[in-house]
């Protein structure tokens, strides 16, 4: 049997990185040395992308130039345009978007350039294109035109505008902006590791990101936020039924999505911020239903199993209150995480070594070939 401690590569240091760091015992997360608690609500997603991809928070001039660069990079290309109506017909959002992200490579002006400098340009484009893809996907499947972007709104505000069709309230846009900051990077999570494994073969950034999209989709990773919303909305009855629901699920041996984490032994600091946002939105919208259910579920899961909520748990009620359709929750995660994924691909390509771990063979040995008539 393989050593249990290496199952799922738990605690294995698979790469060095200067992009983000987690203190799992204390429940702290850092982006390039900045504590997430210090920057959430104080920097925009655009500043966060600059920090992750380029190493530092931008000056005012740098931010202006970077924001212009992002705005100018929203074009998704003719190939992706042509593909959109087909994937809208056939796929769930994450399947469709995984295919669309892959297709962005075709018309990328740097497609044939595998230098790290070209990676940086493609990274900026991918961050700019991702919210456009999600908004376009949603508009196409809803049979309507996507709303014209508003240059006075950043990535967060424009996304809410284009998905809901209504200009978001200032506070709603600020909250969503902070959500994008909170989801931007998280060390060697499954999708980032996937991106690095692909990049480490010296494959291209679009291939790495397509792999990351596939990894993010699963319910044990980014797919959990959608699963949380489905769980919350499946509970029949009032808030008092939550305790019983939790007990029944756990005693049936089922996992409750949005709880537990490989690295955090204390509360996930992102969950602390998202809980606050969920409560604020409950008050602003005058609808406390999902916040109250979430609070009750959090308490019941902690009392029964000692598990803390992770980033996906309160993200569900926050996105719901912001008017985002449930099946776009994981794509929203991808909009944000694109910044971290691309930063990691750049870092991998800057100092590359093939990622190729070992395995321990547990199958039969010493078998001898027999002719097919004797098997
Ligand atoms: N509900 C119930 N029990 C749980 C949960 C949960 N959400 N999470 C962990 N446990 C239990 C397991 O059943 C296991 O119990 P056991 O030792 O009695 O068998 C123990 O806690 C350890 O759990 P593992 O799944 O082995 O822990 P691992 O580190 O491999 O997995 C993971 C971490 C995948 C996040 C897990 O906690 C989980 O499945 N959570 C639900 C899915 C989820 O919310 N994913 C999003 C994570 S955050 C992100 O990726 C963005």
Brief characterization of the structure:
With 375 residues, the chain is mainly alpha-helical.
How would you describe this protein?
This protein is mainly alpha-helical and 375 residues long. The protein has 2 domains: 33-216 and 335-350, Citrate Synthase, domain 1; 224-321, Cytochrome p450-Terp, domain 2, CATH 1.10.230. The protein contains 16 helices and 3 strands. It has helices at residues 36-39, 45-54, 60-72, 78-90, 93-103, 116-141, 155-164, 170-182, 190-199, 205-217, 224-234, 242-251, 269-285, 289-305, 311-321, 329-350; strands at 20-23, 28-31, 34-35. Strands 1-2-3 form a 3-stranded antiparallel beta sheet. Strand 2 (28-31) and strand 3 (34-35) form a beta hairpin. Helix 4 crosses helix 6, helix 8 packs antiparallel against helix 13 (269-285) and helix 13 runs parallel beside helix 15 (311-321). The longest helix is centred in the middle third of the chain and has 26 residues, at 116-141. The structure holds acetyl coenzyme *A. Residues 8, 189, 220-222, 224, 250, 255-262, 305, 307, 310-312 line the site of acetyl coenzyme *A (ACO). Pathway: Carbohydrate metabolism; tricarboxylic acid cycle. One of its GO terms (molecular function) is citrate synthase activity. This is Citrate synthase. The active site is at 261, 312. Belongs to the citrate synthase family.
List keywords for this structure.
375 residues, 3-stranded antiparallel β-sheet, 2 domains, globular, binds acetyl coenzyme *A, Cytochrome p450-Terp, domain 2, 56% helix, Citrate Synthase, domain 1, mainly alpha
